[in-house]
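Morning - PRP inputs below, output right after.
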Amino acid sequence: MSGKVHVMDHPLVAHKMTILRDKNTSVKDFREIVSEIGMLITYEATRDLPLTTKEVETPICTTTAPTLKGKKFAVVPILRAGLGLVDGVLQMVPGARVGHIGMFRDEETLEPHVYFCKMPKDIAERDILIVDPMLATGGSAEAAITEMKKRGCTNIKLMVLLAAPEGIERIQTSHPDVNIYCGAVDDHLNENGYIVPGLGDAGDRIFGTK
Ligand code: PRP
Ligand code: URA
Protein backbone atom coordinates (compact mmCIF):
# COMPACT_ATOMS: atom_id res chain seq x y z
CA MET A 1 0.00 0.00 0.00
CA SER A 2 1.33 3.48 -0.84
CA GLY A 3 1.56 6.41 1.56
CA LYS A 4 -1.28 8.88 1.82
CA VAL A 5 -1.16 12.36 0.32
CA HIS A 6 -2.81 15.04 2.43
CA VAL A 7 -3.45 18.15 0.35
CA MET A 8 -4.37 21.19 2.43
CA ASP A 9 -7.92 22.12 1.68
CA HIS A 10 -8.10 25.50 3.37
CA PRO A 11 -8.76 29.01 2.04
CA LEU A 12 -5.88 30.56 4.02
CA VAL A 13 -3.39 28.15 2.48
CA ALA A 14 -4.88 28.60 -1.01
CA HIS A 15 -4.66 32.40 -0.68
CA LYS A 16 -1.08 32.34 0.60
CA MET A 17 0.02 29.88 -2.10
CA THR A 18 -1.20 32.34 -4.75
CA ILE A 19 0.98 35.08 -3.24
CA LEU A 20 3.98 32.72 -3.43
CA ARG A 21 3.26 31.95 -7.08
CA ASP A 22 3.28 35.64 -8.03
CA LYS A 23 6.70 36.46 -9.48
CA ASN A 24 6.39 40.03 -8.16
CA THR A 25 6.17 38.95 -4.50
CA SER A 26 9.17 40.37 -2.61
CA VAL A 27 11.80 38.17 -0.97
CA LYS A 28 10.64 39.40 2.45
CA ASP A 29 7.00 38.52 1.82
CA PHE A 30 7.90 35.22 0.15
CA ARG A 31 10.01 34.14 3.14
CA GLU A 32 7.34 35.15 5.67
CA ILE A 33 4.56 33.37 3.80
CA VAL A 34 6.60 30.17 3.35
CA SER A 35 6.95 30.12 7.12
CA GLU A 36 3.24 30.81 7.68
CA ILE A 37 2.14 28.02 5.34
CA GLY A 38 4.69 25.77 7.05
CA MET A 39 2.91 26.45 10.32
CA LEU A 40 -0.50 25.69 8.83
CA ILE A 41 0.61 22.39 7.26
CA THR A 42 2.28 21.37 10.51
CA TYR A 43 -1.13 21.66 12.14
CA GLU A 44 -2.37 18.94 9.76
CA ALA A 45 0.80 16.85 9.86
CA THR A 46 0.68 16.61 13.67
CA ARG A 47 -2.98 15.60 13.85
CA ASP A 48 -2.04 12.09 15.03
CA LEU A 49 0.33 13.13 17.84
CA PRO A 50 -0.51 11.00 20.84
CA LEU A 51 -2.20 12.56 23.86
CA THR A 52 -2.30 11.60 27.48
CA THR A 53 -4.18 13.29 30.29
CA LYS A 54 -3.25 15.25 33.37
CA GLU A 55 -5.06 16.81 36.23
CA VAL A 56 -5.39 20.60 36.15
CA GLU A 57 -7.02 23.05 38.48
CA THR A 58 -9.16 25.50 36.57
CA PRO A 59 -10.44 28.61 38.40
CA ILE A 60 -13.64 26.60 38.89
CA CYS A 61 -12.63 23.03 39.78
CA THR A 62 -10.13 20.22 39.27
CA THR A 63 -10.44 18.31 36.00
CA THR A 64 -8.63 15.77 33.88
CA ALA A 65 -7.61 17.28 30.54
CA PRO A 66 -5.58 16.24 27.47
CA THR A 67 -1.89 17.04 27.10
CA LEU A 68 0.70 15.96 24.51
CA LYS A 69 2.35 12.69 25.45
CA GLY A 70 5.72 14.28 24.73
CA LYS A 71 6.70 11.85 22.00
CA LYS A 72 10.13 12.63 20.59
CA PHE A 73 9.87 14.66 17.41
CA ALA A 74 12.40 16.08 14.94
CA VAL A 75 12.05 18.38 11.97
CA VAL A 76 14.57 17.79 9.19
CA PRO A 77 14.91 20.53 6.56
CA ILE A 78 16.47 19.65 3.22
CA LEU A 79 19.05 22.40 2.64
CA ARG A 80 18.78 24.91 1.65
CA ALA A 81 15.16 25.81 0.81
CA GLY A 82 13.79 23.55 3.58
CA LEU A 83 15.22 26.01 6.14
CA GLY A 84 12.40 28.36 5.20
CA LEU A 85 9.87 26.00 6.78
CA VAL A 86 11.63 25.30 10.07
CA ASP A 87 10.39 28.34 12.02
CA GLY A 88 6.78 27.58 11.15
CA VAL A 89 7.13 24.01 12.44
CA LEU A 90 8.89 25.16 15.62
CA GLN A 91 6.16 27.66 16.37
CA MET A 92 3.73 24.75 16.51
CA VAL A 93 6.10 22.21 18.15
CA PRO A 94 8.60 24.30 20.12
CA GLY A 95 10.29 21.30 21.73
CA ALA A 96 11.21 19.66 18.41
CA ARG A 97 14.85 18.94 17.65
CA VAL A 98 16.24 19.97 14.27
CA GLY A 99 18.41 17.81 12.02
CA HIS A 100 19.87 19.17 8.78
CA ILE A 101 20.38 17.35 5.53
CA GLY A 102 22.30 19.09 2.76
CA MET A 103 21.60 18.11 -0.78
CA PHE A 104 22.36 19.53 -4.20
CA ARG A 105 21.01 18.39 -7.53
CA ASP A 106 23.20 17.62 -10.51
CA GLU A 107 22.00 20.23 -12.99
CA GLU A 108 22.04 17.77 -15.90
CA THR A 109 20.71 14.56 -14.40
CA LEU A 110 18.66 16.39 -11.68
CA GLU A 111 19.78 13.59 -9.32
CA PRO A 112 20.51 14.66 -5.73
CA HIS A 113 23.78 14.25 -3.81
CA VAL A 114 23.96 14.36 -0.02
CA TYR A 115 26.82 16.62 1.10
CA PHE A 116 25.88 17.21 4.75
CA CYS A 117 23.91 15.40 7.41
CA LYS A 118 23.84 16.45 11.07
CA MET A 119 21.20 14.82 13.25
CA PRO A 120 20.35 14.74 16.96
CA LYS A 121 22.04 11.70 18.62
CA ASP A 122 18.77 9.91 19.37
CA ILE A 123 17.30 10.48 15.90
CA ALA A 124 16.28 6.81 15.47
CA GLU A 125 13.86 7.18 18.42
CA ARG A 126 12.17 10.27 17.01
CA ASP A 127 9.20 10.86 14.76
CA ILE A 128 10.61 12.65 11.72
CA LEU A 129 9.08 15.47 9.67
CA ILE A 130 11.23 16.10 6.58
CA VAL A 131 10.50 19.57 5.18
CA ASP A 132 11.17 21.11 1.77
CA PRO A 133 9.05 23.64 -0.13
CA MET A 134 9.18 21.66 -3.40
CA LEU A 135 8.59 18.04 -4.36
CA ALA A 136 9.43 18.05 -8.08
CA THR A 137 11.02 14.88 -9.53
CA GLY A 138 11.04 13.61 -5.94
CA GLY A 139 14.75 12.79 -6.11
CA SER A 140 15.77 15.04 -3.21
CA ALA A 141 13.00 13.88 -0.89
CA GLU A 142 13.57 10.24 -1.83
CA ALA A 143 17.28 10.52 -1.00
CA ALA A 144 16.55 12.37 2.27
CA ILE A 145 14.10 9.67 3.37
CA THR A 146 16.63 6.94 2.47
CA GLU A 147 19.27 8.77 4.53
CA MET A 148 16.94 8.94 7.56
CA LYS A 149 16.08 5.26 7.25
CA LYS A 150 19.82 4.44 7.16
CA ARG A 151 19.99 6.17 10.54
CA GLY A 152 17.28 3.89 11.93
CA CYS A 153 14.24 6.19 11.62
CA THR A 154 10.99 4.32 11.14
CA ASN A 155 8.28 6.98 11.49
CA ILE A 156 8.82 9.54 8.74
CA LYS A 157 6.51 12.15 7.20
CA LEU A 158 7.25 14.50 4.34
CA MET A 159 5.93 18.08 4.31
CA VAL A 160 6.12 20.26 1.17
CA LEU A 161 4.41 23.42 -0.02
CA LEU A 162 4.01 22.35 -3.62
CA ALA A 163 4.17 18.91 -5.19
CA ALA A 164 4.23 17.60 -8.76
CA PRO A 165 2.37 14.36 -9.52
CA GLU A 166 5.71 12.89 -10.70
CA GLY A 167 7.32 13.49 -7.30
CA ILE A 168 4.37 12.11 -5.38
CA GLU A 169 4.43 8.94 -7.45
CA ARG A 170 8.16 8.50 -6.92
CA ILE A 171 7.85 8.75 -3.12
CA GLN A 172 4.83 6.49 -3.06
CA THR A 173 6.78 3.88 -5.03
CA SER A 174 10.13 4.06 -3.25
CA HIS A 175 8.88 4.86 0.28
CA PRO A 176 5.28 3.63 0.55
CA ASP A 177 5.39 3.99 4.35
CA VAL A 178 5.81 7.80 4.16
CA ASN A 179 2.76 10.06 4.15
CA ILE A 180 3.03 13.36 2.29
CA TYR A 181 1.52 16.66 3.52
CA CYS A 182 1.37 19.45 0.96
CA GLY A 183 -0.13 22.88 0.35
CA ALA A 184 -1.10 22.13 -3.26
CA VAL A 185 -0.46 19.68 -6.09
CA ASP A 186 0.37 21.21 -9.47
CA ASP A 187 0.01 19.99 -13.01
CA HIS A 188 3.36 18.66 -14.22
CA LEU A 189 7.12 19.19 -14.48
CA ASN A 190 8.71 21.03 -17.38
CA GLU A 191 11.80 19.79 -19.25
CA ASN A 192 14.06 21.49 -16.67
CA GLY A 193 12.43 19.75 -13.73
CA TYR A 194 10.46 22.82 -12.61
CA ILE A 195 6.92 22.50 -11.33
CA VAL A 196 4.29 24.01 -13.66
CA PRO A 197 2.68 26.42 -12.97
CA GLY A 198 4.73 26.34 -9.75
CA LEU A 199 6.43 29.24 -8.03
CA GLY A 200 9.91 29.11 -9.53
CA ASP A 201 13.08 28.26 -7.61
CA ALA A 202 12.01 28.19 -3.97
CA GLY A 203 15.54 28.52 -2.56
CA ASP A 204 16.37 31.52 -4.71
CA ARG A 205 13.10 33.21 -3.78
CA ILE A 206 13.50 32.57 -0.03
CA PHE A 207 17.11 33.72 0.10
CA GLY A 208 17.07 36.30 -2.70
CA THR A 209 19.89 34.66 -4.61
CA LYS A 210 18.67 35.50 -8.10
C1 PRP B 1 14.91 22.39 -4.73
C2 PRP B 1 13.87 22.12 -3.68
C3 PRP B 1 14.03 20.63 -3.46
C4 PRP B 1 14.38 20.14 -4.84
C5 PRP B 1 13.18 19.51 -5.44
O1 PRP B 1 16.14 22.47 -4.17
O2 PRP B 1 14.03 22.88 -2.53
O3 PRP B 1 15.03 20.31 -2.53
O4 PRP B 1 14.76 21.28 -5.60
O5 PRP B 1 13.48 18.93 -6.64
P1 PRP B 1 13.41 17.37 -6.88
O6 PRP B 1 12.12 16.91 -6.29
O7 PRP B 1 13.45 17.25 -8.38
O8 PRP B 1 14.61 16.73 -6.23
P2 PRP B 1 17.44 22.83 -5.05
O9 PRP B 1 18.09 21.56 -5.52
O10 PRP B 1 17.08 23.81 -6.11
O11 PRP B 1 18.41 23.45 -3.98
P3 PRP B 1 18.23 24.71 -2.99
O12 PRP B 1 17.38 24.25 -1.84
O13 PRP B 1 19.61 25.03 -2.56
O14 PRP B 1 17.59 25.84 -3.74
N1 URA C 1 12.91 23.09 -7.24
C1 URA C 1 12.36 24.32 -7.14
O1 URA C 1 12.82 25.14 -6.35
N2 URA C 1 11.32 24.62 -7.92
C2 URA C 1 10.80 23.75 -8.79
O2 URA C 1 9.81 24.08 -9.48
C3 URA C 1 11.39 22.48 -8.88
C4 URA C 1 12.45 22.17 -8.11
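Note: The chain has a mean pLDDT of 96.

O.
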